[in-house]
Each structure stands twice: as structure tokens, then as C-alpha cells.
Write a structure and sequence with these properties.
single chain; alpha+beta
């Protein structure tokens, strides 16, 4: 699974390094679009967040 870590001032290719404590599912045309959308998340004022690709199971 492809993932990125988004912080208030950077995007890293390291993926999520901590346990997931919550999630929001969004649908975009690309990972870049999802990252841009996540940059507006108010949670970034407190901590980093992970953006991951999901796949359909059915």
C-alpha cells in the first residue's frame, strides 16, 4: 500500500510511522489530489497525518 506523511510544512514518502487512531475516507483522482486536500485538515495544527491509498474489495 502506498502512503505519505503530511505535516504542516512538508510531505514525506516515509508513510505512517505511528498507529492509526482515526480515519477519514475521501475519493480523489490521484494521490497528489488527496495530499493537497489533506493540507487543509485542522489536525495538522496538532500533529502529522498519514495519507494512504485503499483498494476496493468487491
Amino acid at each position: 500500500m502506498h502512503s505519505k506523511t503530511v505535516s504542516g510544512d512538508a510531505v514525506q514518502d516515509t508513510g505512517m510511522e505511528t498507529a492509526m487512531t482515526g480515519y477519514t475516507i475521501i475519493e480523489t483522482d490521484s494521490m497528489d489530489a488527496a495530499i493537497e486536500m489533506s493540507k487543509g485538515c485542522p489536525y495538522l495544527e496538532m500533529d502529522d497525518l498519514g495519507v494512504c491509498e485503499l483498494m476496493s474489495m468487491g
